[in-house]
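Exercise 3.2. Students should predict the tertiary structure of the chain below and write it as structure tokens, then compare their answer with the key that follows.

Predict this chain's 3D structure.
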Amino acid sequence: MKGWSHQAKRRLKDAQVEALSEESRFLLAYDAAHTLATAALRWHGYRSENRYLVFQCTQHTVGLDKAKWLVLDKCHKQRNLAEYEGQLDVNRQLLLELTEITTELLELAEALGPVKNE
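Answer key:
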């Protein structure tokens, strides 16, 4: 998990830089969460072609509460609006929740140890 967590930590740290726009901070935090969720899935020996599935699996891969992965799923939908429709209207509360959940996800993913095929 070493390479994955280093990458996610960097993005999460950057997402907390208040001088950046909320849109940039949101996308950085989202990328960190996705990196960690993907690493947890791979730790268990699985891969996914679908970005949204990695968040849904966090309940099983790292024991993340359903309510929290639902927030990540909402963030995924927001990210898609930005990526494919060119519109990103960041709700400050959602950004705060995303940052908190990503911090928790980092701890849970690091507790798994190294990805077996890393």
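Discussion points: The first helix runs from residue 2 to 15. The domain at 2-112 is CATH 1.20.120.330 (Four Helix Bundle (Hemerythrin (Met), subunit A)).
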